[in-house]
Amino acid sequence: MSVNATVTVEVGLGDRAYDILIGSGLLLRAGTEISRRLPGTRAAVVTDDNVAAAHLETLKAGLEKGGIQPAVITLPAGEKTKSFAHLEEVVDGVLAARLERGDVVIALGGGVIGDLAGFAAGIVRRGMNFVQIPTSLLAQVDSSVGGKTGINSARGKNLVGVFHQPKLVLADTEVLDTLPIREFRAGYAELAKYGLIDRPGFFAWLEENWGKVFAGGPERAEAIAEACRAKADVVARDEFETGDRALLNLGHTFGHALEAATRYDSARLVHGEGVAIGMALACRFSSRLNLASPDDAARVETHLRAVGLPWRMADIPGELPDAEALLAFITQDKKVSRGALTFILTRGIGQAFIARDVPASEVLSFLRENHPGRQSRPGPQKSSPGQQKSRPG
Amino acid sequence: MSVNATVTVEVGLGDRAYDILIGSGLLLRAGTEISRRLPGTRAAVVTDDNVAAAHLETLKAGLEKGGIQPAVITLPAGEKTKSFAHLEEVVDGVLAARLERGDVVIALGGGVIGDLAGFAAGIVRRGMNFVQIPTSLLAQVDSSVGGKTGINSARGKNLVGVFHQPKLVLADTEVLDTLPIREFRAGYAELAKYGLIDRPGFFAWLEENWGKVFAGGPERAEAIAEACRAKADVVARDEFETGDRALLNLGHTFGHALEAATRYDSARLVHGEGVAIGMALACRFSSRLNLASPDDAARVETHLRAVGLPWRMADIPGELPDAEALLAFITQDKKVSRGALTFILTRGIGQAFIARDVPASEVLSFLRENHPGRQSRPGPQKSSPGQQKSRPG
C-alpha cells in the first residue's frame, strides 16, 4: 500500500448509504468527489477561524476543480460555538446563499463544526445534502460516522440535534499533521476504543503499530479506516441508538462525568482524554465486578500510558470533586434511562456489553477507591475486587 | 353514526405508523389514549395564550385520567412565535422538565404550535415522542398528517425544520366550535383541497354537505377523516417530499405569493384564504392552458364562494402589487426547483398533477389577466384561453 493510496469505507444504511474516503491529499480532490456524487451542486462551506487559516484555501482550490465556488461561513473556534445562536447564524448563511435542498453544506473542521454544520444541514429546508471533511483525528474516527449532529444546551452537551447522514466523508490524513500532538492523542483514544469494544485483533495491532499511526505512514489511514468500519458496523445495526449503538459510549459515562467535573476546561481535560480515562475506569470497574480479568484492565492502562494519554483520575491536573459529586454527574448524564444506571462494561478486550441497572452503590465505592484524593491508591497490577473493598472515611 | 362516535384513521408509515382519532370529547380522553400507547410516559404540553385559556384545563383533566401531570409551556399566539427564539424556549422548557427521549411533547394548538412543538420534539435528544392535539380545522386536516415541522426564517416561511412523525393525533371536533367562523372557513379550504387533488367524489359530497360540516354534525368528523385519509395516502407514498407529495401544494404557489404580497397581514388574508384563491387560480390557469375544462374551474369558484371563502384576487381587501411583482414572489417560493417553475395543475376536479417547467411568461400573462388592477376582468363563466390572449399594457 503506497502512502497516497485512498481507502474507501462504505457505510451501509440502505438509501442513506455513503462512502468515507480516507487518504492524503483529499482536500484537493473534494470538488471532483463531490460533483461526481452530486452533479451540478452548489455549496456552502462551514468552518472555524483556526481551520480556515490552515486549510480553507486548499479546499477552495479542490472544490474549484469540480466547478464548485462555495459560500463560506466562518465561525469562532471552540466548543461554545455549538449554540443556538451560531446554529441560527449558519442556517441564515445557508439560506442567504440561496441554496436549495439538493445543494450541499460542507463541514470543514473538527467535531464542533461537523456537529453544528450537520445540524444546520439537517434542518434547512427540512434536510439538505451534507458532506463532512473532518480535520481532527477525533472527528475522522468518531463524528464522521453515524449521522449524529447537534448543539449544546445550558442543561448539557449534545442535548439538541438530529440524525442526519452525510452523502460523503473525506478524511484527509495529511491535515492531521497540523494538529497539536495532544489533540492527536485525544483522538487516538476514540480510535483505540473500537478495539476495546469488539475488535481485539485491532487493539493488539495498535499495541504493535501505534507509533506508525502517530508518524503518519499508511498505517494511519488503515487505522482510521478500521475504526470507521467498526463504528459503521455498529451504526448499521442501530442507526437511531435504540440498542447496540450504546456500545460506542464505552468510556463515555465516566469520561463525561470527568469533563463536567473539570467544567469542560480544555487546559485540564479534553474530550478524548476523558474517554481514555473513562475506558480505563470502565475496564477496571468491570474487573472489580468480577466480569473481566484484571490483566485486561492493566493491558488497557499500559497502552494508554504508552501513547502518552492520561489513564487515571490522578492524571488530571488540579483537584477533582469527591466521589459523591462525580456520581451525581454520572446520574445527570443523558444516557441514564428512567433513573437506572446504564454502563458499558466489558468481559475483556474486545468484549464490551451494555449493562443496565448497575447499582449506584457499586459505582460510588469504585469511585472512592480510585479517587486521587484517597490516601493510598492501589496500583493497577495489584488491584482486585477482593482487595478493594475497604473504603475511606 | 352517533355524534360522539370516534373515527380512526391509520397513517401507514411502517415503524412510524400512527393513529389519528377524530371525534368529540377527545381532550378528556387524552390521558387514556396516550398512556395506552406510551405507558408510564411523562409529558410537556406546548400551547399558546389563546388556546390555553379555552382548552388547557380540559386537557389537563383528561391527562390526569391517564396519570399524566404535564409540564406546561405557554407561548404568545401568532405566526411570529415560529421563530428560533421561541424554539429555544420550548427546547429549554422540555429539558428543564427533565423529560427523556421516551417521554412525550404534546402540542395543543393550531398549526403554529404544532409546527413549533413538533420541531422541538424532533430535536430534543435527537427526537422525542410527539403527540398532536390540533385545535383548528386547518391543523386537523393539514399539519396533523405528514410529519412536517418547522419555524420561519427572516428569509421565508417554514424554511427550517425536520420531518418528525407524531405517535398519535387527537382531533377533537368539539373544540372547533370555539373557532371564529373566518378561521373555520380558512381550514375548510384545505379540506376541500383533497377533493380537488384526487377525490372527485369527496368534492361532490362537500358540495352537497358542506353546511353540515360547518354545523358540526357527524359529517364534520367524516369530512375531517376523509381529508386525513387523503393526505395520509399521499404522505405514505412520499414521506420526505421527493415526488408525489408536491400534489399537496395545490393552490399553494399562488397562495403563498398572495400571502407574501399582503405581507402576511391576517386582517387581509390568512393562509387558508390564500389557498382558496390559489386553488381557484390553479384551476383557472389549467383551463387557460387547455388542460382542464373551464366548467371545472367555474365549479370550484362557485363552491368556494358558496361557503363564504374568497376565490379571486379581487376578494382581497386593499391594493395588490402588480403581476410582475406577484411573479417575483412565486419565483422566490421554496418549491421552485433549480430555477424552473413547478406548479400543481389539474385536468379537472380530482385530477391534479405536478407540472414542471411551466413557462414564467404564461404565468405572468395569466396574472395580468386576472389582476384586480386590470380594467375589465373576464367573468369565470366567460373566460377561455382563446378569449384571454389580449394583454394589458
UniProtKB/TrEMBL annotation, chains A, B:
<comment type="function">
    <text>Catalyzes the conversion of 3-deoxy-D-arabino-heptulosonate 7-phosphate (DAHP) to dehydroquinate (DHQ).</text>
</comment>
<keyword id="KW-0028">Amino-acid biosynthesis</keyword>
<comment type="similarity">
    <text>Belongs to the sugar phosphate cyclases superfamily. Dehydroquinate synthase family.</text>
</comment>
<feature type="compositionally biased region" description="Polar residues">
    <location>
        <begin position="381"/>
        <end position="393"/>
    </location>
</feature>
<dbReference type="GO" id="GO:0005737">
    <property type="term" value="C:cytoplasm"/>
</dbReference>
<dbReference type="InterPro" id="IPR056179">
    <property type="entry name" value="DHQS_C"/>
</dbReference>
<keyword id="KW-0479">Metal-binding</keyword>
<dbReference type="InterPro" id="IPR030963">
    <property type="entry name" value="DHQ_synth_fam"/>
</dbReference>
<keyword id="KW-0057">Aromatic amino acid biosynthesis</keyword>
<feature type="binding site">
    <location>
        <position position="271"/>
    </location>
    <ligand>
        <name>Zn(2+)</name>
    </ligand>
</feature>
<feature type="binding site">
    <location>
        <begin position="135"/>
        <end position="136"/>
    </location>
    <ligand>
        <name>NAD(+)</name>
    </ligand>
</feature>
<protein>
    <recommendedName>
        <fullName>3-dehydroquinate synthase</fullName>
        <ecNumber>4.2.3.4</ecNumber>
    </recommendedName>
</protein>
<keyword id="KW-0547">Nucleotide-binding</keyword>
<dbReference type="GO" id="GO:0000166">
    <property type="term" value="F:nucleotide binding"/>
</dbReference>
<feature type="domain" description="3-dehydroquinate synthase C-terminal">
    <location>
        <begin position="187"/>
        <end position="336"/>
    </location>
</feature>
<keyword id="KW-0456">Lyase</keyword>
<dbReference type="Pfam" id="PF24621">
    <property type="entry name" value="DHQS_C"/>
</dbReference>
<dbReference type="InterPro" id="IPR050071">
    <property type="entry name" value="Dehydroquinate_synthase"/>
</dbReference>
<keyword id="KW-0520">NAD</keyword>
<dbReference type="InterPro" id="IPR016037">
    <property type="entry name" value="DHQ_synth_AroB"/>
</dbReference>
<dbReference type="GO" id="GO:0009073">
    <property type="term" value="P:aromatic amino acid family biosynthetic process"/>
</dbReference>
<dbReference type="GO" id="GO:0009423">
    <property type="term" value="P:chorismate biosynthetic process"/>
</dbReference>
<feature type="domain" description="3-dehydroquinate synthase N-terminal">
    <location>
        <begin position="73"/>
        <end position="185"/>
    </location>
</feature>
<comment type="pathway">
    <text>Metabolic intermediate biosynthesis; chorismate biosynthesis; chorismate from D-erythrose 4-phosphate and phosphoenolpyruvate: step 2/7.</text>
</comment>
<dbReference type="GO" id="GO:0003856">
    <property type="term" value="F:3-dehydroquinate synthase activity"/>
</dbReference>
<feature type="region of interest" description="Disordered">
    <location>
        <begin position="369"/>
        <end position="393"/>
    </location>
</feature>
<feature type="binding site">
    <location>
        <begin position="111"/>
        <end position="115"/>
    </location>
    <ligand>
        <name>NAD(+)</name>
    </ligand>
</feature>
<feature type="binding site">
    <location>
        <position position="148"/>
    </location>
    <ligand>
        <name>NAD(+)</name>
    </ligand>
</feature>
<dbReference type="GO" id="GO:0046872">
    <property type="term" value="F:metal ion binding"/>
</dbReference>
<feature type="binding site">
    <location>
        <position position="190"/>
    </location>
    <ligand>
        <name>Zn(2+)</name>
    </ligand>
</feature>
<keyword id="KW-0170">Cobalt</keyword>
<keyword id="KW-0963">Cytoplasm</keyword>
<dbReference type="Pfam" id="PF01761">
    <property type="entry name" value="DHQ_synthase"/>
</dbReference>
<keyword id="KW-0862">Zinc</keyword>
<dbReference type="GO" id="GO:0008652">
    <property type="term" value="P:amino acid biosynthetic process"/>
</dbReference>
<dbReference type="InterPro" id="IPR030960">
    <property type="entry name" value="DHQS/DOIS_N"/>
</dbReference>
<feature type="binding site">
    <location>
        <position position="157"/>
    </location>
    <ligand>
        <name>NAD(+)</name>
    </ligand>
</feature>
<feature type="binding site">
    <location>
        <position position="252"/>
    </location>
    <ligand>
        <name>Zn(2+)</name>
    </ligand>
</feature>
